[in-house]
Amino acid sequence: MRPASDSKMRRLIIVSTLILLANQLPAQPRIGKCTIFPANNIWNTKVDTLPVHSLSNAYVQSIGPQKKLKADFGSGLWEGGPIGIPFTLQTGKPVRVTFEYADESDPGPYPLPPRPPIEGGEQSDGDRHVLVLDEKDCKLYELFSARKAANGNWQAGSGAIFDLRSNKLRPSGWTSADAAGLPILPGLVRYEEVAAGQINHAIRFTARNTQKAFVWPATHFASSKKDKGIPPMGMRFRLKSTFDTAKFSPHTRVILEALKKYGMILADNGSDWYVSGAPNEKWNNDILRELGRVTGNQFEAVDTSKLMVSATSGEVKKH
């Protein structure tokens, strides 16, 4: 066999190196035909090496150091509705939506299918989020407190449209379908990614007490409390690196490892340490309950300020 030429050998080394690097890089989050924000977006950025926030201890004490982590998603029904925040790739004829908070909502129109899945079910009196991802242009349409009237018109508390190919944030002071002014879908735990063995994005979570303030990438608050020891909307938390995940089931371990690497973003007022996900009949609720073995004192708040390129963008600096 003839030995490879030096130039050919160099090409082989370069190609092998690129393949190795590609295999080491996390896959960018994708739903359907769309990647979920650019790779350099704050939602898709690891925070495992960032410094601990100076108010971390106070924030954890505020939420509850002994309170248990909870998967606010699963299979089956709870009070007649699916467990979690559903979304759909099905679209319909664009419709106008009337908003309660019209001055902070994107007017649309919104390409809602005839019967989109509603958080909590059609009879729910909760947040009633509706999330629609249009794969044609990779735009995300999200509504809060959405209801369809008998005449076919839609009403909602608020609504937001996100271009998933862009890092652009909502205007400062504006809400979205979420209290923090953030998109909901990018922060949901989905069965498909857990089954594949890797979550490559931050996770949405809630806390009962939040501050009358927000930090990047959030754009809105939903509180009258000025106590600096209470976390503001948009605060990022991560599971401590010292937490041992070895004794958890594989699916639970995927979620916990994501909480170490990517952390979770405070996005709404709600039950303490509740992490958000999409309902799926393949979830094993007993396995998801393993998250309850993790308590608040295993988390720490993260200072992400050095990642910010601009207050109007979710783009991060290289670090």
Description of the molecule:
The structure is a single chain. This protein has 319 residues and is α+β, with helices and mostly antiparallel strands. The protein has one domain (30-307). The protein contains five helices and 16 strands. The chain has helices spanning 6-24, 56-63, 191-196, 250-261, 285-288, and strands spanning 30-31, 34-35, 70-72, 77-78, 81-82, 97-99, 130-134, 139-144, 147-148, 154-156, 158-163, 203-207, 236-239, 264-269, 274-276, 299-302. It has a six-stranded mixed beta sheet with strand order 3-15-12-14-13-16. A three-stranded mixed beta sheet has the order 6-10-9, with no helix packed on it. Strands 7-8-11 form a three-stranded antiparallel beta sheet, with no helix packed on it. A hairpin with a 4-residue loop joins strand 7 and strand 8 (139-144). The relative contact order is 0.21.
Give the structure's gist in a few sentences.
By secondary structure, the protein is an alpha+beta fold.
Binned, the helix content reads: 10-25%
Summarize the biggest pleated sheet.
Answer: 6 strands, mixed
Strand order of the largest sheet: 3-15-12-14-13-16
As for the number of domains, it is 1
Broad shape: globular
How do the strands and helices of this protein lay out in sequence?
Elements: H1 6-24, E1 30-31, E2 34-35, H2 56-63, E3 70-72, E4 77-78, E5 81-82, E6 97-99, E7 130-134, E8 139-144, E9 147-148, E10 154-156, E11 158-163, H3 191-196, E12 203-207, E13 236-239, H4 250-261, E14 264-269, E15 274-276, H5 285-288, E16 299-302
Parallel strand pairs: 3-15, 6-10, 12-14
Antiparallel strand pairs: 1-2, 4-5, 7-8, 8-11, 9-10, 12-15, 13-14, 13-16
